[in-house]
Amino acid sequence: MHIAWGSFLLALLVIILVPGPDFVMVTRSAATGARWGWLAAAGVTCGLLIHATAATVGLSALVIAFPAALFVIKVLGIGYLVLMSVRILRRAGSTAVAGEEAAPTSGRAVFLRGLLVDVLNPKVLLTFLTLLPQAMDPAGDPMRQALLLSAAAVASFAAWWLIVVPSVGWLSAFLSVPRRKRVFERCCGGALLVMASSIALA
Fold it and tell me: How far apart, in whole angstroms, are the C-alpha atoms of residue 56 and residue 83?
């Protein structure tokens, strides 16, 4: 079993670095207090875990039932990565903020908001369904591979929040500069496009 860890982790890194609703939720909560930031991050991670479990079970069952489905999913995955890249590049430098949340009122409320941000975001599930097949070995055990890759994805996001929450002041200041945000997002969008191209040509 040969899992393509290199390309998987690289793609995952780019997706993690692209600010989304979960990033806005965690940083906005952390800006009002570290405790709120950690609770929001915990909620987001739990939501991610739910999607990871669903993707692992569903994808594994599909591949076992229809081995050719892995190729189809890979093709769809390439299309999705290209779409993500185009959207990021088109919106690079935008000052609009998605996923605005109300100010924290209780620990439970903050945790639940973080949980719902990921659970109700179909892009999170699509991320798993597009990234996992790209790294899986068709000759290997799909359940074992999907489980390992999903666990790595959840752990990577959790590690990211361990960096974001204590550094929220610096990160917010860095991305608040339009030029920096524009360059940052263009780099992320370009990286996704390059990865999609490399998968298509492989």
Answer: 23
